TrEMBL record:
Pyridoxal 5'-phosphate binds at residues 122-123, 261, 326-327. It comes from Rhodanobacter lindaniclasticus. Belongs to the class-III pyridoxal-phosphate-dependent aminotransferase family. BioA subfamily. The record marks 23 as: Participates in the substrate recognition with KAPA and in a stacking interaction with the adenine ring of SAM. This is Adenosylmethionine-8-amino-7-oxononanoate aminotransferase. One of its GO terms (molecular function) is pyridoxal phosphate binding. The gene is bioA. Its EC number is 2.6.1.62. It is found in: Cytoplasm. SUPFAM superfamilies: PLP-dependent transferases. It catalyses: (8S)-8-amino-7-oxononanoate + S-adenosyl-L-methionine = S-adenosyl-4-methylsulfanyl-2-oxobutanoate + (7R,8S)-7,8-diammoniononanoate. The lineage of its organism: Bacteria, Pseudomonadati, Pseudomonadota, Gammaproteobacteria, Lysobacterales. The keyword Secreted does not apply. GO terms for biological process: biotin biosynthetic process.
Length: 456
């Protein structure tokens, strides 16, 4: 029997002849352990494969999609821009979409963030912030400041600088000889709190430990970098906003920068437009990407203050310019898409609807708190996570090589749902256009997958 040229099997076979996929052991696909799924179109919260099978996108396609696949409003803005200006060098030239986007980002982010530096993706934004922080101190006569403080369990990207301030062994271990060595502050992760300790108390204790670290190392430290409220790729670890309040105060006291990596948690994910808002703090650098373009185009931005900007503003011969560039910096297509994304937040009650969806998701997940193999159910707005363990009392995890999360993933695919657990953490981060009924499907399928995963 001849297999159609546009079938799932044919497309997967063609893919595996040439394509090398990210964050993937290709042997899984090459030997048929894990299917390669060819997607030909998207519709709202759904992805559709080559044979018409539909998959509810429970992870927003790696946390980028906000307003649904093939969103007509954003697509129209992209098409309009494509017929006007697709790209122009961003050194010495500018264009309306980038100017308007910078103005809008300054308007919606916390004061005193006033300056916007564009890049291509999240890791690039982290690289910009790290280099800019170091270079600021160098320009101010403090070249001894060369180190960064990150949280244990942190993840900030996979380019070498971003990986240097990450602490997830899966990503870091192999490349450790190539990386900078960060100072690690204990994470305020509420799941790791002492028995009987509230999340706020855990945050306070961890701030005390951060203070001790700064007392020893502030003289050589450029910045502290954190993901506000949720350490996403580190296992959807969540912590109390009080930590951000204390962090801002400590950074001011010890003269180090505060870098907020809002790449995954920004644009409404945690219940406010930006996670830092829940602590009423403003960082020295805010890194944005993912939801910035609602999943349509690669783009990132680093926002900083006039004080930082002025440390680079000098005569050419002073040699203080920030020399960092990408060919597609400030791409007009991406900027126009980002503007339309922000316009949707402005024109529609997105955050209000998200709060209703988050409450629905919380109700549906609540019974899992009593599950004998669930140690924790946690949530921050439109991010929720379920921690699977081998033993609930001791919180002993399942061995990583048992790949229990993979069983949840495979069950989801078989039942038309895209779930992609982080190890033994089953998480939910759907597009904002998801309905209550679709959330029910998402949770029901995850619960069934969990039962499959824990079966021996």
């Amino acid at each position: 029997m001849t297999i159609p040229a546009n079938s799932n099997a044919t497309l997967a076979e063609r893919d595996l002849r040439h394509v090398w996929h990210p964050c993937t052991q290709m042997h899984d696909h090459g030997e048929g352990t894990v299917p390669m799924v060819p997607i030909v179109r998207g519709e709202g919260a759904w992805l559709v494969d080559a044979e018409g099978r539909r998959y509810l996108d429970g992870v927003s396609s790696w946390w980028v999609n906000l307003f649904g696949h093939a969103n007509l409003r954003i697509a129209a803005a992209l098409a309009d821009q494509a017929g006007t200006l697709e790209q122009v060098i961003f050194a010495g030239f500018t264009h309306e979409p980038a100017i308007r986007l910078a103005e809008e980002l300054v308007r919606v982010t916390p004061a005193p963030l006033q300056r916007v530096f564009f890049a291509d993706n999240g890791s690039s934004a982290i690289e910009v912030a790290l280099k800019m922080s170091f270079h600021y101190w160098l320009n101010r006569g403090h070249g001894e400041k060369t180190r960064f403080i990150a949280l244990s369990g942190s993840y900030h990207g996979e380019t070498l600088g971003a990986l240097s301030v990450s602490d997830v062994a899966l990503y870091r271990k192999t490349y450790a000889p190539l990386l900078l060595t960060p100072l690690l502050a204990p994470s305020p992760d509420a799941y790791e709190g002492e028995p009987g300790e509230t999340p706020a108390q855990t945050a306070a204790r961890r701030l005390g430990e951060l203070r001790t670290l700064l007392e020893r190392h502030a003289h050589e430290t450029c910045a502290v970098i954190v993901e506000p409220l949720v350490q996403c790729a580190g296992g959807m670890r969540m912590y109390h906003p009080d930590y951000l309040v204390g962090l801002r105060a400590l950074c001011d006291e010890f003269a180090v920068h505060f870098i907020a990596d809002e790449i995954a948690v920004g644009f409404g994910r945690t219940g406010t437009l930006f996670a830092c808002e829940q602590a009423a703090v403003s960082p020295d650098f805010m890194c944005l990407s993912k939801g910035l373009t609602a999943g349509f185009m690669p783009l990132s931005a680093v926002l900083t203050t006039d004080e930082v900007y002025e440390a680079f503003y000098a005569e050419y011969n002073a040699g203080k310019a920030f020399l960092h560039s990408h060919s597609y910096t400030g791409n007009p297509l991406a900027c126009r898409v980002a503007l339309e994304t922000l316009a949707i937040f402005r024109d529609e009650p997105v955050l209000e609807r998200n709060r209703q969806l988050a409450a629905h998701l919380a109700r549906r997940l609540a019974p899992l708190r009593e599950h004998p193999q669930v140690a924790d159910v946690r949530q921050a707005g439109m991010i929720a996570a379920v921690e699977l363990v081998a033993d609930k009392v001791s919180r002993r995890p399942y061995p990583a090589d048992e790949r229990r999360g993979l069983r949840v993933y495979l069950h989801g695919l078989q039942h038309g749902v895209l779930l992609r657990p982080l190890g033994n953490v089953v998480y939910f981060m759907p597009p904002y256009v998801v309905t209550g009924q679709e959330l029910d499907l998402l949770v029901d399928t995850a619960i069934q997958g969990i039962e499959r995963a824990i079966a021996d």
